[in-house]
Amino acid sequence: MTSTQNKKRPFRFGDKLRTVRERKGYTLKIVAQKAGVSESLVSQIERNKVSPAIDTLLTLADVLDINLEFLFEEYRRERPVQVIRSQERRTVEEDEVLYEELAKPTESDGKHALESYLVSIPAGGKTHRGSYGHMGRELGFIIEGEAQLLYESKAYELQAGDSVSFSASSPHTLVNTGDKPLKALWVVTPPQRFV
Protein backbone atom coordinates (compact mmCIF):
# COMPACT_ATOMS: atom_id res chain seq x y z
CA MET A 1 0.00 0.00 0.00
CA THR A 2 1.44 3.39 -0.92
CA SER A 3 1.66 6.23 1.56
CA THR A 4 -1.02 8.16 -0.32
CA GLN A 5 -3.42 5.23 0.10
CA ASN A 6 -2.75 5.27 3.84
CA LYS A 7 -3.72 8.94 4.18
CA LYS A 8 -7.32 9.71 4.93
CA ARG A 9 -9.12 11.29 2.03
CA PRO A 10 -10.28 14.74 3.16
CA PHE A 11 -14.00 15.38 3.10
CA ARG A 12 -14.69 17.91 0.34
CA PHE A 13 -18.21 19.27 0.60
CA GLY A 14 -17.36 22.69 -0.83
CA ASP A 15 -18.03 21.96 -4.51
CA LYS A 16 -21.49 20.62 -3.79
CA LEU A 17 -22.38 23.52 -1.49
CA ARG A 18 -21.22 26.12 -4.04
CA THR A 19 -23.02 24.41 -6.94
CA VAL A 20 -26.33 24.32 -5.06
CA ARG A 21 -25.90 27.91 -3.77
CA GLU A 22 -25.25 29.25 -7.27
CA ARG A 23 -28.14 27.23 -8.72
CA LYS A 24 -30.48 28.79 -6.19
CA GLY A 25 -29.09 32.27 -6.93
CA TYR A 26 -27.96 32.87 -3.33
CA THR A 27 -24.95 35.07 -2.56
CA LEU A 28 -22.34 34.08 0.01
CA LYS A 29 -23.70 36.85 2.22
CA ILE A 30 -27.29 35.53 2.17
CA VAL A 31 -26.19 31.97 3.01
CA ALA A 32 -23.88 33.20 5.78
CA GLN A 33 -26.64 35.32 7.36
CA LYS A 34 -29.22 32.52 7.23
CA ALA A 35 -26.70 30.05 8.70
CA GLY A 36 -25.46 32.46 11.36
CA VAL A 37 -21.81 32.20 10.30
CA SER A 38 -19.37 34.56 8.65
CA GLU A 39 -19.27 35.08 4.90
CA SER A 40 -15.57 34.25 4.87
CA LEU A 41 -16.23 30.89 6.58
CA VAL A 42 -18.78 29.93 3.91
CA SER A 43 -16.27 30.98 1.23
CA GLN A 44 -13.48 28.90 2.82
CA ILE A 45 -15.76 25.86 3.13
CA GLU A 46 -16.81 26.16 -0.53
CA ARG A 47 -13.14 26.31 -1.58
CA ASN A 48 -12.34 23.30 0.64
CA LYS A 49 -9.91 25.41 2.65
CA VAL A 50 -11.51 24.40 5.94
CA SER A 51 -13.55 21.42 7.06
CA PRO A 52 -16.72 22.63 8.72
CA ALA A 53 -17.88 21.45 12.13
CA ILE A 54 -20.74 19.00 11.70
CA ASP A 55 -23.32 21.42 13.13
CA THR A 56 -22.17 24.11 10.68
CA LEU A 57 -22.37 21.67 7.78
CA LEU A 58 -25.86 20.55 8.81
CA THR A 59 -26.99 24.19 9.12
CA LEU A 60 -25.61 25.01 5.66
CA ALA A 61 -27.33 21.94 4.23
CA ASP A 62 -30.59 23.08 5.84
CA VAL A 63 -30.25 26.64 4.53
CA LEU A 64 -29.56 25.36 1.02
CA ASP A 65 -32.19 22.60 1.33
CA ILE A 66 -29.61 19.93 0.47
CA ASN A 67 -30.41 16.27 1.04
CA LEU A 68 -27.73 14.82 3.35
CA GLU A 69 -27.67 11.67 1.22
CA PHE A 70 -26.51 13.82 -1.71
CA LEU A 71 -23.90 15.55 0.43
CA PHE A 72 -22.35 12.33 1.77
CA GLU A 73 -22.95 9.88 -1.11
CA GLU A 74 -19.31 9.56 -2.22
CA TYR A 75 -18.16 8.83 1.31
CA ARG A 76 -20.33 5.78 1.74
CA ARG A 77 -17.76 3.01 1.96
CA GLU A 78 -18.38 -0.28 0.30
CA ARG A 79 -17.88 -2.94 2.93
CA PRO A 80 -17.43 -6.16 1.02
CA VAL A 81 -19.68 -9.04 1.92
CA GLN A 82 -18.35 -12.36 0.79
CA VAL A 83 -20.86 -15.02 -0.19
CA ILE A 84 -19.74 -18.52 -1.11
CA ARG A 85 -22.60 -20.52 -2.62
CA SER A 86 -22.81 -24.12 -1.44
CA GLN A 87 -22.29 -25.48 -4.95
CA GLU A 88 -19.28 -23.17 -5.51
CA ARG A 89 -17.21 -24.03 -2.43
CA ARG A 90 -13.58 -24.90 -2.99
CA THR A 91 -12.73 -28.30 -1.57
CA VAL A 92 -9.55 -30.03 -0.52
CA GLU A 93 -9.24 -33.76 0.07
CA GLU A 94 -6.45 -35.15 2.24
CA ASP A 95 -6.62 -38.92 2.28
CA GLU A 96 -10.22 -39.64 3.30
CA VAL A 97 -10.91 -36.21 4.89
CA LEU A 98 -12.89 -33.58 2.96
CA TYR A 99 -12.56 -29.85 3.65
CA GLU A 100 -15.16 -27.44 2.17
CA GLU A 101 -14.26 -23.74 2.29
CA LEU A 102 -16.80 -21.46 4.01
CA ALA A 103 -14.80 -18.23 4.33
CA LYS A 104 -12.04 -17.13 1.99
CA PRO A 105 -9.28 -14.91 3.42
CA THR A 106 -8.55 -11.71 1.50
CA GLU A 107 -5.49 -9.46 1.39
CA SER A 108 -7.40 -6.64 3.07
CA ASP A 109 -7.96 -8.84 6.15
CA GLY A 110 -4.32 -8.38 7.12
CA LYS A 111 -3.57 -9.75 10.58
CA HIS A 112 -7.27 -10.56 11.04
CA ALA A 113 -7.28 -13.11 8.21
CA LEU A 114 -9.02 -16.36 8.95
CA GLU A 115 -10.37 -19.30 7.06
CA SER A 116 -13.36 -21.42 7.86
CA TYR A 117 -14.44 -24.75 6.49
CA LEU A 118 -16.62 -27.78 7.01
CA VAL A 119 -14.57 -30.87 7.69
CA SER A 120 -16.01 -34.34 6.98
CA ILE A 121 -14.20 -37.36 8.36
CA PRO A 122 -15.39 -40.92 7.73
CA ALA A 123 -15.65 -43.40 10.61
CA GLY A 124 -12.15 -44.25 11.83
CA GLY A 125 -10.57 -41.39 9.84
CA LYS A 126 -8.47 -38.50 11.12
CA THR A 127 -6.90 -35.21 10.09
CA HIS A 128 -3.18 -35.07 9.33
CA ARG A 129 -2.08 -31.52 8.61
CA GLY A 130 -2.09 -30.25 12.21
CA SER A 131 -0.10 -33.20 13.49
CA TYR A 132 3.05 -31.03 13.49
CA GLY A 133 1.41 -27.81 14.71
CA HIS A 134 1.50 -24.38 13.04
CA MET A 135 1.14 -20.72 13.95
CA GLY A 136 -2.19 -19.33 15.10
CA ARG A 137 -5.40 -20.51 16.73
CA GLU A 138 -8.19 -22.89 15.85
CA LEU A 139 -11.82 -23.16 16.84
CA GLY A 140 -13.92 -26.22 16.08
CA PHE A 141 -17.61 -27.05 16.51
CA ILE A 142 -18.87 -30.62 16.18
CA ILE A 143 -22.03 -30.67 14.05
CA GLU A 144 -22.57 -34.45 13.77
CA GLY A 145 -20.80 -37.47 15.17
CA GLU A 146 -18.23 -38.20 17.86
CA ALA A 147 -14.63 -37.12 17.87
CA GLN A 148 -11.47 -37.08 19.85
CA LEU A 149 -9.04 -34.18 19.69
CA LEU A 150 -5.50 -35.38 20.29
CA TYR A 151 -3.62 -32.31 21.51
CA GLU A 152 -0.03 -32.66 22.66
CA SER A 153 -0.23 -35.73 24.92
CA LYS A 154 -3.92 -35.39 25.89
CA ALA A 155 -7.16 -36.63 24.35
CA TYR A 156 -10.41 -34.62 24.50
CA GLU A 157 -13.72 -36.41 23.82
CA LEU A 158 -16.15 -34.34 21.72
CA GLN A 159 -19.83 -34.89 20.90
CA ALA A 160 -22.26 -33.09 18.58
CA GLY A 161 -22.76 -29.57 19.93
CA ASP A 162 -19.35 -29.38 21.63
CA SER A 163 -16.80 -26.76 20.66
CA VAL A 164 -13.08 -26.60 21.20
CA SER A 165 -10.46 -23.88 20.75
CA PHE A 166 -6.71 -24.00 21.13
CA SER A 167 -3.33 -22.66 20.13
CA ALA A 168 -2.43 -24.35 16.86
CA SER A 169 1.30 -24.30 17.62
CA SER A 170 1.14 -27.68 19.37
CA PRO A 171 0.55 -30.91 17.46
CA HIS A 172 -3.17 -31.70 17.08
CA THR A 173 -5.27 -34.28 15.30
CA LEU A 174 -9.05 -34.69 15.05
CA VAL A 175 -10.14 -38.34 15.02
CA ASN A 176 -13.60 -39.66 14.19
CA THR A 177 -14.23 -42.13 17.03
CA GLY A 178 -17.84 -42.91 16.06
CA ASP A 179 -19.28 -45.35 13.57
CA LYS A 180 -20.85 -42.58 11.43
CA PRO A 181 -19.27 -39.75 9.43
CA LEU A 182 -18.10 -36.80 11.51
CA LYS A 183 -19.02 -33.27 10.40
CA ALA A 184 -17.45 -30.24 12.05
CA LEU A 185 -17.18 -26.51 11.46
CA TRP A 186 -13.59 -25.30 11.76
CA VAL A 187 -12.08 -21.79 11.93
CA VAL A 188 -8.33 -21.20 11.62
CA THR A 189 -6.28 -18.04 11.90
CA PRO A 190 -4.01 -17.31 10.17
CA PRO A 191 -5.27 -19.29 7.15
CA GLN A 192 -3.50 -22.60 6.46
CA ARG A 193 -5.42 -24.95 4.23
CA PHE A 194 -6.81 -22.93 1.32
CA VAL A 195 -3.97 -20.42 0.87
In short:
This protein is an alpha+beta fold and 195 residues long. It has helices at 3-6, 14-24, 28-35, 39-46, 54-63, 68-72, and strands at residues 91-94, 97-103, 115-121, 137-144, 146-151, 154-159, 163-167, 172-176, 182-189.
Give the overall form: rod-shaped
Strand adjacency order, main sheet: 1-2-3-9-4-7
The tally of strands reads 9
Main sheet properties? 6 strands, antiparallel
Structure description:
This protein has 195 residues and is α+β, with helices and mostly antiparallel strands. It is 24% helix and 29% strand. The chain has a six-stranded antiparallel sheet, with no helix packed on it. Strands 6-5-8 form a three-stranded antiparallel sheet, with no helix packed on it. β1 and β2 form a beta hairpin. α3 crosses α5.
Q: What descriptors fit this protein?
A:
24% helix, alpha+beta, 9 strands, 6 helices, rod-shaped, 195 residues, single chain, 6-stranded antiparallel sheet
What layout of secondary structure does this protein have?
Blueprint: H1 3-6, H2 14-24, H3 28-35, H4 39-46, H5 54-63, H6 68-72, E1 91-94, E2 97-103, E3 115-121, E4 137-144, E5 146-151, E6 154-159, E7 163-167, E8 172-176, E9 182-189
Antiparallel strand pairs: 1-2, 2-3, 3-9, 4-7, 4-9, 5-6, 5-8
Helix pairs in contact: 3-4, 3-5
